[in-house]
Amino acid sequence: DTQRIALVPILNRFNSFKATTKKGLVAMMEYASLEAATGNFSESNVLGVGGFGCVYKANFDGGFVAAVKRLGCEGQEYEKEFENELDLLQRIQHSNIVSLVGFCIHQENRFIVYELMVNGSLETQLHGPSHGSALSWHIRMKIALDTARGLEYLHEHCNPPIIHRDLKSSNILLDSDFNAKDFRFWPCSDKWKSQQRESEAF
Q: Which intervals hold domain Protein kinase (predicted)?
């Protein structure tokens, strides 16, 4: 995967060490690097708020930009969300699925770091200020095909299969080249339900 290969030198620079999850190794990032990249979690860097926390834009040294979700409350529910999401995203590697960059544990806070999707969601592109003006017919067809490829991977190539359960324009995210990536999905056997919408932040 070209995108994951490109992340290797970036992660090598920020990681303090590797941590083992149920499915393998995940990059653990230092709290100080997240704090600096988000401007001490400044309100000006808030991208959105979801049911389990706030999401910030993080500008790291070297021009690398990511989205950092901060799960700010303690308790079994938040810990379960944190562990489930890490485990799930670690074993999913596809160009049309939002990528996990790393995570951080600091005191009672838990952080998950994702690639930043700079063009936001399909919903924002269609119904936001631009009203879809940036989406040519060719780009719209490409978004549809990208979304279908992501769903096919989740349904047909993951073990156990993963069902999206909440496919809508706000959960289809777009990178700088308008490549579409799916977000907010769950294993078939997982009873965890989606809470408030947070996909807009990534």
A: 41-202
